[in-house]
């Protein structure tokens, strides 16, 4: 069974990697779409490898649950190389001569202003905010997320974010 | 079908245990707590599954594995919501904008992260550089960051993933 799970995971990973190069709609949308469209492949694969005593309906249901769960875990995993600022610092250091960099150089290659502008543009295209030259307006989605974050922090009793 | 309800119950146990621990201990870096609670809950789930449904047939074993992956997904989602949304960079910007109407311009958001208070690090670096040093990924002295062997290994692995999935530079910059 471990081999079957491994092969199912591999299908999602490879198809997402290919899809991201072809579709150009962003890695997260691509991974969701690819996970969903590969469900029939997974069902077929697990049905081909099932024991004769197993019910087909149970195999189908459990395959869908397993396949979507693997896709979801993979989705979370993708946020690390794509969005983590901490990992980005390590990659910048790896690319630097002698694997070292001072704060001034780091500020140049990893410019705070550019990073904030890039995030604001992403929040704008995802319709959380509206950027009008320099002016920022929170849209409905942004207001909802803002309230969710502040209440979530209250629930966990944690302070400000990054 | 009953097993999925059991999975949801175990996820709620995970959520409550983590929440209670973080609140009581006022733990501001609960990465290990999420992981520890997840392992405990997964073991408890395995034992409960053995008690309520035996794992004799291959069909039951497959049902168990599917539900176990679903439980892992639910736990990771909570973990990721905590770190990426409640505590993440974009989440931080949105909540700052929500809380304070006076900073709703690009320049003011930038100055919030780089307050020019005489410090040699901006708000993003202030937390990350000590975390990376504590974790043994870098050393930091004389205003210079040096990559350690452990950090180099992680950086190579990250670069390979970025190339394989065509992610660009990382750090959420597109």
Short recap of the structure:
The complex is a heterodimer of chains A (162) and B (174). Chain A is 74% helix and 7% strand.
Gap from first CA to last CA of chain B: 43 Å
What's the mean pLDDT score of chain A?
89
Q: What is the number of E strands of chain A?
A: 3
What does the radius of gyration of chain A come to?
21 Å
Helical content of chain B stands at over 70%
Shape of chain B: elongated
Total count of helical runs of at least 4 residues of chain B: 7
Q: What's the rounded overall pLDDT mean of chain B?
A: 87
Subunit arrangement of the protein: heterodimer
Radius of gyration of chain B: 21 Å
Question: Mind explaining what this structure looks like?
Answer:
The complex is a heterodimer of chains A (162) and B (174). Chain A has 162 residues and is mostly helical. Chain A has helices at 2-23, 27-37, 39-48, 56-83, 85-95, 103-109, 112-125, 140-156; strands at 100-102, 129-132, 135-138. The two termini of chain A are 41 Å apart. Chain B has 174 residues and is mainly α. Chain B is built from 7 helices and 2 strands; from the N terminus they run H-H-H-H-H-H-E-E-H. In chain B, helix 1 runs parallel beside helix 3 (58-86). The longest helix of chain B is centred in the middle third of the chain and has 29 residues, at 58-86. The relative contact order of chain B is 0.07. Classes of the chains: A mainly alpha (162), B mainly alpha (174). At the A-B interface, helix 1, helix 4, helix 5, strand 1 and helix 6 of A face helix 1, helix 3, helix 4, helix 5 and helix 6 of B. Strand 1 of chain A pairs antiparallel with strand 2 (144-147) of chain B, so a sheet runs across the interface.
